[in-house]
Amino acid sequence: MDCGNIRKFIDTSFFADLQIRTLNLYDYCGIRANTLTYMILIRRQTIGEAHEDVVRTIAERCQGETRMTEDGEVTYDPEEPVCIHIESPFSTPMKSSASLFGDRFSEQYQSSLYTITHRKNDGTDATYTYGNRLRDYPVASLALKKTERSFLGKILDGLMEKCGYVPAGSTGEIEYTGDGNLGGIDQIQTSIINRLIENPSSRRAVAITWSPVMDITRDEPPCLQLVQCQIDKTNHLNLICLFRSNDMLSAWGQNAFGLAHMQKFILEQINQAREKKKLPLLTQGWLETISVSAHMYITRDQLELMKFFQKEQAKESFKSFHKT
To answer: pLDDT tens-digit profile of 303-321?
Structure first.
C-alpha cells in the first residue's frame, strides 16, 4: 500500500477524536505554546495499550507527511521526542495483538537485554547487543609490544618496568575486553543493583550503552542509550530508559517488553539482599521510555502498520455499535 492509501486511514474519524484528546492532554500538561509541541506524552496502564496509542498518535501527528532517513527509508517522524509512561508493565496485555512478533521471539529478545551474548568473533556476531553493553561494557587497556631483546636487555627491561618505565623500543596498542568477550564492566550489577542495595535513595543507579570509540563512526550504533532505576517513597522500583532513536511501530513493543523483564530481574536481585537484611521488599513500579527520535517505517513495515490501523477501526466500529 502506498502513502496515499495509508493517508486515507489517517483521515478517518477516530483520528479526529484522537487529535482532540491529544491536544487536551498537551494543554493540561502545560507543554503546548500556540501550535508548538515540545514532547508527546502517552500514559497508559499496559505496554500493549501504549503501543497501539503511540502508533495512532504518530500517524495522526504526521498527517501523511513523510521523511526520508539517511538510509533511504520512508518514515513518519513527528520530530518531537515521545515519552511513554507505563503504570503497570506486567499487566496484560503486555503486547498488542497487532504486533507481528510471536511469544517465542519476545522471550528470546527480552533475555538478551540483560544477559551476555558471547561473541564468536568469526564475522557473524551482531554489531552490538544491549545485554553485552549493559553487562559487559567494553574496557580499553594498553598492550605493550616489545621488540626482541638480548638476555641482558630483557633483564634491564624488567627492572625498568618495575620502576614504571616503558622498555625501549616498545609500541603500544589499545585492546578491548568485554562487549561479549567477557572482562568488561557489569553495569547492571555494579552501578544499579549494588548501588541501590547500599543506598536505596541513590540517583546514580545508571547504566549506558554508548561507547564513543566504537560508536561514533558506526552506521548502527545502539538505539537504547541509558537506563536508570529509582526506588520511590512507597518502595517501588521504577525504570527510566532513554533512546536516541526508536522505531515505535516494529521495535518499541519489543523494547518495552524486554525492559519490563530487565526491571523485574533487577528487582529480584535487590530483594534477595533486602531479605537478608530483613528490610521491606520492593515491588515493581512504573516503566518510562523517552524516545528522542521516534518514527515509524511506513513502507518497510506497511503490513504491521495496516494491522494496527485495522484493529483501531474495529474498536471504533464496536463503540459505534454500542452507541446505537
So the answer is: 999 999 998 877 665 455 4
Distance from the Cα of residue 130 to its chain's centroid: 8
DSSP string, 173-219: EEEEE-TTSS-SB-HIIIIIIHHHHH-TT-S--EEE---HHHHTT-S
pLDDT of residue 13: 44
Q: How far apart are CA 45 and CA 232, in angstroms?
A: 18
Paired residues of 229 in beta bridges:
239
Q: Is 318 helix (H, G, I), strand (E, B) or coil?
A: helix
CA angle 172, 175, 176 (to 5 degrees): 160
3-state SS class at 106: helix
Residue 96 to residue 49: CA distance in whole angstroms: 7
Classify each residue of 20-44 as buried b or exposed e, where b means 16 or more C-beta atoms within 10 Å of its C-beta: eebeebbeeeebbeeeebeebbbeb
Positive or negative, the CA dihedral 249, 252, 254, 260 is: negative
Provide the Cα torsion 243, 244, 249, 250; round to 10°.
-80
Please tell me which residue, 155 or 31, carries the higher pLDDT value. 155
Is the pLDDT confidence value at 199 over 50? yes
Catalytic residue among 83, 163, 223, 229: 223
Q: Each residue of 15-69: pLDDT tens digit?
A: 444 443 444 444 434 344 345 568 999 999 999 999 999 999 999 999 899 999 9
Cell of 202: 541513590
**Cell of residue 259, nine digits:** 525492559
User: Across-strand partners of 242?
Assistant: 226, 290
Given a cut of 60, whether residue 2 has pLDDT beyond it is: no
Residues whose CB falls within 8 Å of the CB of residue 195, separated by 6 or more in sequence, listed in order: 202, 204, 205
Which pLDDT does position 150 carry in this prediction?
A: 73
223 is catalytic: yes
Nearest-angstrom CA–CA distance, 113 and 129 = 7
Residue with cell string 519489543: 254
